[in-house]
Amino acid sequence: MNTEELLRLLACPRCLGDLGALESDGQTAGFACDACAVVYPVRERIPVMLVEEAIPRDQWDRQHPGGRELTRGEA
Ligand SMILES: [Zn+2]
């Protein structure tokens, strides 16, 4: 399953909103919800879509400098 397919299937577990994929080193490293300002991390290639595991977006950006975001349709 590629990132484009995941973006279509996944929704934020908190607000059920759309997500953007965050890349780091050429791989999808997390899925971001802009409304909640959090990132759901991808661990061992599996998206962890749990509110308890969400990482605040500002913390994520500090941990992943130079990461880029893909939105639905361009992944
Ligand atoms: Zn959300």
Essential attributes:
N-terminal domain of TfIIb; 6 strands; 75 residues; 19% helix; binds zinc ion; 2 helices; 6-stranded antiparallel β-sheet; alpha+beta
Describe the protein's architecture and organization.
There is one protein chain. This protein has 2 helices and 6 strands; from the N terminus they run αβββββαβ. Helix content is 19%, strand content 33%. Strands 1, 2, 3, 4, 5 and 6 form a 6-stranded antiparallel beta sheet that branches. The protein has helices at residues 3-9, 57-63; strands at residues 20-24, 27-33, 38-43, 46-47, 55-56, 68-70. With 75 residues, it is α+β, with helices and mostly antiparallel strands. The chain has one domain (3-68): N-terminal domain of TfIIb (Single Sheet). It binds zinc ion. The site of zinc ion (ZN) has 7 residues, from loops.
